[in-house]
Automatic annotation (TrEMBL):
InterPro entries to which the protein is assigned, alphabetical: AAA+_ATPase (IPR003593), ABC_transporter-like_ATP-bd (IPR003439), ABC_transporter-like_CS (IPR017871), ABC_transpr_LolD-like (IPR015854), MacB-like_ATP-bd (IPR017911), P-loop_NTPase (IPR027417)
Family: Belongs to the ABC transporter superfamily. Macrolide exporter (TC 3.A.1.122) family.
Domain ABC transporter stretches: 2-231
Name the record gives this protein: Lipoprotein-releasing system ATP-binding protein LolD
UniProt keyword terms in alphabetical order: ATP-binding, Hydrolase, Lipoprotein, Nucleotide-binding, Transport
Domain of life: Bacteria
Species of the source: Microbulbifer aggregans
PROSITE patterns: ABC_TRANSPORTER_1 (PS00211), ABC_TRANSPORTER_2 (PS50893)
GO cellular component terms given for this protein: plasma membrane; transmembrane transporter complex
EC class name: hydrolase
Lineage: Bacteria, Pseudomonadati, Pseudomonadota, Gammaproteobacteria, Cellvibrionales
The keyword RNA-binding appears for this protein: no
Length: 231
């Protein structure tokens, strides 16, 4: 479970101080699929970056699976991040001259898995995202939706407990966006907790719960609890 209490994040540039998050409190339970919406500049990406241990808060408490992770050093954060967290982004971030198999292999090599374990994981996640037949293709040979599915496979290969998605459908047409959303719903049903930032109100509604961030805070007015979208 992910639990933030009165998180603050400030950025100082010269004389200007920006409060990206203030008194930000939120709990995400094991197995939830939470969507995050809010105006541009409201703090959504800052929240995801802190949740994903890419950045540290200026103040407040962040607990991940009960462990206080508010003040970890870079090394401790990257170890926990590798162990528990997967990321997907609007821009896929695939390496253009590596085929799908090798793209998924990059973070697994970095983490020191042996060849047999890496191959097993890569074949499993390619099957999960429905792209087994494309393992030797380059990213440019795929549609945008397929490229995002590769990026999802790469995140899943680390077997993360939490999947954090920043506008994962932002570059996709509505059909491909729906397909990516359906894949995320399967992944959630298989047991991964998902937090997804999106501008798309239809996709936001399909999550178990939608959180609105306004001016760096969770807006209680917009807090709704919708039933799970899956039949
Ligand atoms: P959103 O994702 O909702 O668009 P962000 O979390 O990116 O919002 O940004 C929240 C606020 O923090 C904005 O005012 C933004 O300009 C500011 N901000 C974000 N990152 C930085 C940074 N590295 N340096 C200075 N200001 C930043
Ligand atoms: P569909 O019926 O739309 O094809 P499935 O439920 O069969 O979707 O799942 C699609 C892919 O997900 C398949 O490749 C399957 O191997 C994989 N899959 C299904 N259930 C699980 C699970 N519990 N854990 C891991 N992978 C799964």
């Amino acid at each position: 479970m992910l639990k933030m209490h009165n998180i603050r994040k400030s950025y100082r540039t010269d004389t200007i101080e920006t409060h990206a998050l203030r008194d930000f409190s939120l709990e995400v339970n094991e197995g939830e699929f939470v969507s995050v919406t809010g105006p541009s500049g409201s703090g959504k990406t800052t929240f995801l970056n802190i949740a994903g241990l890419l950045e540290t808060p200026t103040g407040g408490e962040y607990r991940l699976d009960g462990e206080d992770v508010s003040n970890l050093n870079d090394h401790q954060r990257s170890r926990l991040r590798n162990e528990k967290i997967g990321f997907i982004f609007q821009g896929f971030n695939l390496i253009p001259d590596l085929n799908l198999f090798d793209n998924i292999d990059v973070p697994l090599r970095y983490r020191g898995f042996n060849g047999k374990e890496r191959k097993k994981r890569i074949e499993k996640v390619l099957e999960q995202v429905g792209l087994s037949a494309r393992a030797k293709h380059l990213p440019a040979q795929l549609s945008g939706g397929q490229q995002q599915r590769v990026a999802i496979a790469r995140a899943l290969a680390g077997e993360p407990r939490f999947l954090l998605a920043d506008e994962p459908t932002g570059n996709l047409d509505s059909l491909m966006a729906r397909q990516v959303m359906e894949l995320l719903e399967f992944i959630n049903e298989w047991g991964t907790t998902i937090v997804m930032v999106t501008h798309d109100p239809d996709l936001a509604r399909r999550a178990h719960r939608n959180i609105q961030i306004v001016d760096g805070q969770v807006s209680d007015l917009h807090r709704t609890t919708a039933p799970a979208a899956a039949e």
